[in-house]
Write a structure and sequence with these properties.
93 residues; Rossmann fold; four-stranded parallel β-sheet; 3 helices
């Protein structure tokens, strides 16, 4: 499936399980670099290893998106400058 997202950047919340993980897999196939955010660090790292073969940049961030403090701490690593377009994809919260 071509979603025309080649070389874009995405933020996927809930990216370590279920629908969020499925989104991470599909976006990696679509040649998208992404930050994946979820509460469980071990599950995030497992998801990142799973899609590592796509050679996309995957940034796993353990954070609770319902916490303003966690969201604030996650902004800096996600906000790295880039010339590519970005999109935000939210999985289950």
């Amino acid at each position: 499936m071509d979603l025309r997202l080649h070389d874009k950047h995405a933020i996927v919340t809930g990216g370590s399980r279920s629908i969020g993980k499925a989104m991470v897999r599909e976006l990696a196939r679509e040649v998208v670099d992404m930050a994946i955010v979820a509460r469980n660090k071990a599950d995030l790292e497992a998801t990142a290893r799973e899609v590592a073969e796509t050679n996309r940049r995957i940034l796993p961030l353990a954070a609770d998106v319902t916490s303003t403090e966690h969201v604030a701490l996650s902004r800096e690593p996600i906000s790295a400058p880039s010339t590519a377009s970005r999109c935000s994809i939210s999985g289950p919260i």
